[in-house]
């Protein structure tokens, strides 16, 4: 055997036994009876899989969210009135199993690195709500699967980088979001669940002027519209300011027609009616352990009033949400939320339905946004909610919560057994696993 061949084999054996480290690939453990060729192929497969995933810049993550909610009113419908996601009373609910595959765009990279995408797929009971709200067969769809987000993005080399996103995205409107674990509390506010958009589909431009100012504008089909329900488009915006490391102020809003076209000569809506909303999110880090959030919100829509005798008039809904988040340490925290929500035109509350009424069904199976007596007309009312949440994270990937919530209305829209009532109290326990 020549000296060169001996050296070659010696170097190969050094690589196989870990003498050289290439990236983060672990050495292949010795396998009894495995040939040299088999060990080389195993190492190549490890290296190829890791390098392809890394080269594509792909990231995979997700979550599983389950909860139990008890309603102290023991409503005969087994529904928590006017709630949207935590709808079932005295019941365990497999809320969500979520998979998120994304390739974030990188403004500092090559032309290929500037391209990215996000695909967020939801399974479970929460997907029923988002699926119905985003008009995949609205009103009758009971499938427990929904693409919460599905869009592509590219960062144009303009200044600091102009991000362009096209597809279905979480809305720019509001503080709370669909994913419960990204909110301070388990249940959502009336303001988010009943008065704000969940997602929008269209094109969005975002630009960071400096560390203190970021702005986004978009042209979309409308609130929760994957398939546009009219010929108009909605304009949305967000301006986020960070004047101090402890203070953040955002201004958001949208304006555009949201009602459906007339169909078959029957008036399904007023496609020329404009919906205008505006709000702000003020976040103040009072101490290293305490965060205060305020969200004032206002909305007005032409020809949307559902109160008897006020057909054709404007509908107004507005609210104020306040949050206090106290972090005891990395594991324990307490969150308190207070909210007032006014539905002056009866356009946003008591418009849901209960399973079994598919002929005129506007909710999802099981029912959401329901009211005592299931009133046919709009209910003008003012709602309050106070929510107390204790969160414990035994590990960074495991979130557990206990939440008590008190709801109040100036109308008897809740159920106490079979009887209408002006209040309801719920107690929820939630477990979320992140991966």
Strand order of the largest sheet: 1-2-3-4-5-6-7-8-9-10-11-12-13-14-15-18
Mean pLDDT, rounded to whole units? 85
CATH topology of the largest domain: Porin
| CATH homologous superfamily designation of the largest domain | Porin
Helix content: 10-25%
What radius of gyration results from the CA coordinates?
A: 26 Å
> Would you tell me the structural class of the helices and strands?
mainly beta
Count of helical stretches? 4
Please summarize the sheet with the most strands. Answer: 16 strands, antiparallel, barrel
Q: Could you give the order of the helices and strands? A: HHEEEHEEHEEEEEEEEEEEEE
CATH class of the largest domain: Mainly Beta
What is the number of domains? Answer: 2
What would you call the shape? globular
* Poorly predicted sequence stretches spanning 5 or more consecutive residues: 1-32, 355-365
Provide a concise account of the structure shown:
The protein is mainly beta.
């Amino acid at each position: 055997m020549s000296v060169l061949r001996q050296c070659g084999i010696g170097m190969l054996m050094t690589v196989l036994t870990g003498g050289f480290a290439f990236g983060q690939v672990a050495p292949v453990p010795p396998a009894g009876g495995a040939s040299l060729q088999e060990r080389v192929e195993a190492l190549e497969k490890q290296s190829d899989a890791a390098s392809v995933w890394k080269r594509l810049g792909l990231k995979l993550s997700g979550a599983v969210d389950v909860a139990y909610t008890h309603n102290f009113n023991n409503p005969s419908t087994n529904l928590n009135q006017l709630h949207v996601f935590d709808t079932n009373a005295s019941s365990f609910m497999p809320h969500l199993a979520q998979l998120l595959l994304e390739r974030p765009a990188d403004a500092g990279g090559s032309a290929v690195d500037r391209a990215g995408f996000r695909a967020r797929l939801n399974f479970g009971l929460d997907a029923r709500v988002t699926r119905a709200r985003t008009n995949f067969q609205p009103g009758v769809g009971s499938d427990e699967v929904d693409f919460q987000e599905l869009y592509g993005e590219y960062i144009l080399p303009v200044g600091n980088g102009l991000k362009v996103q096209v597809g279905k995205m979480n809305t720019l409107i509001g503080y709370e979001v669909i994913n419960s674990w990204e909110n301070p509390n388990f249940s959502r506010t009336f303001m988010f669940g009943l008065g704000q958009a969940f997602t929008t589909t269209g094109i969005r431009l975002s630009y960071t002027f400096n560390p203190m100012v970021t702005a986004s504008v978009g042209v979309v089909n409308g609130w929760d519209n994957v398939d546009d329900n009219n010929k108009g488009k909605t304009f949305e915006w967000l301006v986020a300011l960070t004047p101090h490391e402890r203070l953040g102020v955002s201004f958001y809003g949208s304006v555009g027609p949201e009602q459906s076209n007339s169909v078959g000569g029957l008036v399904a809506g007023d496609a020329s009616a404009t919906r205008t909303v505006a709000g702000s999110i003020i976040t103040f880090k009072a101490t290293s352990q305490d965060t205060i959030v305020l969200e004032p919100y206002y909305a007005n829509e032409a020809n949307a009033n559902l109160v008897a005798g006020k057909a054709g008039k404007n509908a107004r809904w507005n609210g104020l949400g306040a949050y206090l988040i106290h972090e005891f340490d990395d594991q324990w925290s307490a969150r308190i939320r207070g909210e007032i929500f006014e539905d002056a035109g009866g356009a946003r509350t008591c418009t849901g339905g209960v399973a079994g009424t598919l002929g005129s069904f506007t909710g999802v199976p099981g029912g959401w946004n329901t009211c005592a007596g299931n009133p046919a007309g709009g209910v003008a009312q003012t709602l309050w909610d106070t929510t107390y949440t204790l969160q414990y994270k035994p590990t960074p990937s495991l979130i557990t919560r206990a939440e008590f919530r008190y709801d109040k209305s100036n109308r008897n829209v809740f159920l106490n057994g079979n009887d209408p009532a002006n209040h309801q109290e719920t107690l929820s326990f939630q477990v979320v696993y992140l991966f």
